[in-house]
Amino acid sequence: MNMLPQVFARCAEENRAALVGYLTAGDPNIVTSEKLMLSLAEHVDIIEIGMPFSDPAADGPVIQAASERALAAGTHISDVFTIAEKVRKVYPEIGIVLMGYANVPYTMGFKIFAKRAKEVGVDGVLLVDIPAEESEICSDAFKAHGLSQIMLLAPTSTEQRIKLAADIAQGFIYYVSLAGTTGAEMGEVAAIQDKLSLIRQYTTLPICVGFGVKTPAQAKSIASFADGVVVGSHFVSQITSNINDDDAMLFGLSKSALAMASAMVRKE
User: Fold this and answer.
1) Is residue 267 one of the residues assigned to a domain?
2) pLDDT in 10s for each residue of the chain, 268 residues
3) Before 28, cis peptide (omega within 30)?
4) Which residue among the candidates 13, 14, 27, 48 is catalytic per the annotation?
5) In a domain, 84, yes or no
6) Catalytic residue among 27, 45, 55, 59, which?
7) 3-state secondary structure of 17
8) What is the tally of structural domains in the chain?
9) Residue 185 bears catalytic tag
10) Catalytic: 246?
């Protein structure tokens, strides 16, 4: 069963936005990464498990460094699947999304990748460098295994691009708040809200906003009108700030995730 619809329905019933949290698998090493993923999964509604890649062009320095650490630690796609499977066993009601670049599943073979992802309990996949126009390369494989193909939209997306992405997307649409890389400053809230209003003319899917959300105050402002808020670099920075202390890493991540989760609740 794909858990994404249930996650968003549950959040709507509780009058809050979904908290979507990202970490790179294998960062800073495979053993610690598993602990960090389970800790984050305790507090978020959807966990995005990053597939480390040597050239993460859409990511800023924080997540780029996370990929470098993960690859240096020997992280393989099999480790990504193992971590996802353990998260699913401990948190059966959470949404699980694999996020990364097309090179990884392309090399493995999209059919094999999709089959394995579904076996370990993954709900959706977001490949940031496959635009809507080229989505056919993987869409059949994902559909065959019940995986939601999550599409990106940005401030620069035209109405034509919005319509195309909305026709293809499943699970939710990920709206990038700024024209830049992850970890940069968040875009203007009013402009984000206006763009989401336009996107909603073309889809009934939930829309999650990410890139640049670093504080609970920012998250709260987005949660007031978006279906979900994506936090990535802020969570990864808890690893960077405590790189030689696993306990401090886990504490910092848990504390920051709790604060972000509290910000998801909307006023009555």
Assistant:
1) no
2) 899 999 999 999 999 999 999 999 999 999 999 999 999 999 999 999 999 998 877 778 899 999 999 999 999 999 999 999 999 999 999 999 999 999 999 999 999 999 999 999 999 999 999 999 999 999 999 999 999 999 999 999 999 999 999 999 999 999 998 765 554 566 688 999 999 999 999 999 999 999 889 999 999 999 999 999 999 999 999 999 999 999 999 999 999 999 999 999 997 6
3) yes
4) 48
5) yes
6) 59
7) coil
8) 1
9) no
10) no
